[in-house]
């Protein structure tokens, strides 16, 4: 059981890193390299960007739950 939780944690962490990098690629790097800055104006997420955002939140919640569950299981062993 502990090995399965460790594998799930590794897979979720890799997926989270990929999804976060996909989100940052469009926004943060442009302004970092001297691109046009939006000046604090908000943007509405649409389409696939919104889906990726919601998927990232869901995976982060699942990662948190699995990490807590893994800590409880390994403590009992």
pLDDT < 50 runs, ≥5 residues: none
Q: Mean of residue pLDDT?
A: 83
Cα-to-Cα separation, first versus last residue: 11 Å
Q: Based on helices, strands and strand pairing, what is the structural class?
A: mainly alpha
Helix-strand sequence: HH
Fraction of residues in helices?
over 70%
Report Rg: 17 Å
The total domain count is 1
Beta-strand percent range: under 5%
Number of strand segments: 0
Number of helices: 2
| Shape designation | elongated
Largest sheet entry: none
How would you sum up this structure in a few lines?
By secondary structure, the chain is an all-alpha fold. The protein has helices at residues 2-32, 48-76. Helix 1 (2-32) runs antiparallel to helix 2 (48-76).
Which features characterize this protein?
single chain, 77 residues, mainly alpha, 0% strand, elongated
Descriptive report:
- This protein has 77 residues and is mainly α.
- 78% of the residues lie in helices and 0% in strands.
- The chain has one domain.
- It is built from 2 helices and no strands.
- The longest helix is centred in the N-terminal third of the chain and has 31 residues, at 2-32.
- It is elongated and about 50 Å long.
